[in-house]
Amino acid sequence: MSELQQALISFAIARPRLKDIFSAAILAMLVSAFLHLVGSVLAMNTGLYHERLPELIIDNQYLGLGFIGFLVLLLAQWTTNDSNIYSSVLALNNIFRAKRWKITILAGIFASLLAALGILERLELFLIILTVSIGPIGGIFICDYYFLKRLKKHSFKQKSFSIINYKALGVYIISFLIGWITSGHPFTLKIFPFSVFAFNGIISSIILYYMVMKIFPEKE
Predict the structure, then answer these.
(1) Any idea what DSSP says for residue 192?
(2) How far is CA 123 from its chain centroid?
């Protein structure tokens, strides 16, 4: 029996049946809905939200589980943040060429400091900054590949790339600023007719990068 046949047989045996998939999905939705309902009811009755939710489990005037509640929260955070830090370290390792265990320690310390400084209280502002800062990168990629069509399959391997694309970096900074000032922080400047700040940086980077590359084309 060939390896391909063995692989096909293994896949057929391990492949879940359709009713098993639906059963698991329905069960997950029901449990998730129940957990959200319980959390919402307890939060509304006690007035504890966001960063004060651990008090709901540990404090004696609420559930009062004490040390057991602390362990529950610790294990819950451990299972969640274990996958978070793993994916973060893999992404950071593509940027910083260092040993993964060193990046893991530094990322863990940095994230712990942000948590201790109360980043959860500024979660909305953090998400806005994250949205505004990531959007222009995608816009530059879209313009470079679909509009300028500089990366062709037959010439990709032979093409030389500079270490830093200063034109793209300049466009990114300007697009980030446009997205930032149209997001309401520190003020709202209506540049676009529909002004959705999550897309303002993307649209700006596409337009600006296209103009810059047409005015200052790269030498082949």
Answers:
(1) S
(2) 13
Q: In whole angstroms, give the CA distance from residue 76 to residue 151.
A: 45
Can you tell me the distance from the alpha carbon of 53 to that of 46, in angstroms, rounded to the nearest whole number? 10
Q: Judging by beta carbons within 10 Å of its beta carbon (0-12, 13-18, 19+), is residue 148 exposed, middle or buried?
A: middle
Which pLDDT tens digit goes with each residue over 107-118? 999 988 988 887
**Whether 63 contacts 56, CB under 8 Å:** yes
Distances (CA, A) of 206 to 42, 150, 175, 198: 46, 14, 9, 14
Domain spans, the chain: 122-215
Whether residue 193 has a cis bond before it, omega within 30° of 0: no
How confident is residue 73, by pLDDT bands cut at 50, 70 and 90? confident
Judge whether 128 and 197 are in contact, CB under 8 Å: yes
Q: How far, in Å, CA of 206 to CA of 220, rounded?
A: 22
At 192-212, the pLDDT tens digits run 556 677 788 899 999 999 999
Q: What is the dihedral of CA 182, 185, 186, 190, to 10 degrees?
A: 20
